[in-house]
Amino acid sequence: MDLAAPIRAADTFQRPRPWVAFPIAVVKRFGDSGAGSLAATLAYYGFFSLFPLLMVFTSIAGIVMSGRPDVQERLLRSALAQFPVIGTEIRSNIGSIEGSVLTVVVGLALALWAGLGAVRAAQVAMDTVWDVPRKRRRGTPASIAIALAMLGVVAAFVLGSAALAAISTAASGTAGRVLGLVGSALLNVVFFAITYRMLTAAQLTWRQVLPGAAMAGLGWTALLSIGGWLVADRVASSSDVYGTFALVIGLLAWIYLGAQLMLLGAEVNVVREHRLWPRSLQPPLTDADERALRRSAGQEERVDAEMVDVRFEGEMGQDDASEHAEPDEEGTWRASTPSGRP
Fold first, then answer.
1. 308 is in which domain, residue-wise?
2. DSSP 134
């Protein structure tokens, strides 16, 4: 019995059909990039960054809006709405930094520094997904600057969510629910588009990031709609065994799910931009396979004098077959030959 026959049949079927080949290429690219491990890293840093960042947010909101506790509470609810079920539990454990001016300043600085870990980890993940050579990635000062700017984007997103919640509440009934759902979806798409452009050293355009942002934004909106059931089920199934640690399990699982969705949207952008489909399910390799492998190898260039050359079996001569990573005219890193042939 030929056990490889079904794989050959599936490969033959998907290669000439983009509607099948494209999602297969995205899934394969997800595995090639190690996106599952990257999502786990993001979940780890996101978990430890969440509470310091919420403390910073609560403290700054308390200082800026000292006379409007109702507005402060609305903003915090908008931020915690991204964590179904467990958001209320998180709220009971978050306070603001208080004391003298020096205490507040030092406390905010330390909490902000602790909270930057997730954003900087996301930068590494986005550079990895886009195959940015290590020698072209941002250094520590630039990385911190981008992380701080990204926190500003997150704050603007929370403000927008609060405003949207107020508008949808004012419009009662079905109209209010539809307005809230559509507005939330659009806001999420915009947020992911900005995130995809900011978090990588590759110079991307809005056109290049919009497809993945649309998928991730709509996907996150759908997850939030069913997130209460997902997280509640996880917490309920874990509470008998882990007790109060069930909250930690639910929070980690939710952050990990969101990180996977974000990286999946980024992979959609990469596969679409560089036409990394169809991918093979078994030999022989396709042209898209070779381009993807060349791009991945090019990441290992660590100093300016280093160039990674990639040749495949049957290619003769370094001048004809070797390739290395170079930026194209738009600044996006892609595999190309020394002569500029893609």
1. 5-22+278-336
2. G
pLDDT digits (tens, 9 = 90+) for 17-66: 999 999 999 999 999 999 999 999 999 999 888 888 888 888 888 887 77
- Same structural domain, 95 and 14: no
Task: State whether 225 and 330 are in the same domain.
Answer: no
Residue from 117, 110, 143, 116 nearest 44 by CA: 117
- The answer to pTM > 0.90 is no
Question: Quick one: which H or E segment has residue 336?
Answer: strand 333-336
Please count the structural domains in the chain.
2
Q: Are residue 132 and residue 164 in the same domain, yes or no?
A: yes
Would you give the end-to-end CA distance of the chain in angstroms?
41
Strand 333-336 relative to strand 324-327, pairing: antiparallel
Q: What is the CA radius of gyration of the chain?
A: 23
Return the closest-CA partner of residue 269 out of 332, 222, 187: 332
CA–CA separation, 28 and 23 (whole Å): 9
Helix, strand, or coil (residue 247):
helix
Q: Predicted confidence band at 239 (pLDDT cuts at 50, 70, 90)?
A: low
Same domain as 70, residue 143: yes
Domain boundary residue, one of 255, 273, 291: 273
More confident residue, 76 or 196: 196
Q: Would you give the distance in Å from CA 105 to the centre of its chain? A: 30
On whether both 37 and 18 belong to a single domain, the answer is no
Are 266 and 139 found together in one domain? yes
CA separation for the pair 206, 197 (Å, rounded): 8
Contact between residue 180 and residue 165 where contact means Cβ atoms under 8 Å apart: yes
What is the pLDDT of the chain when averaged over all its residues? 83
Q: Is the pLDDT of residue 73 over 90?
A: no
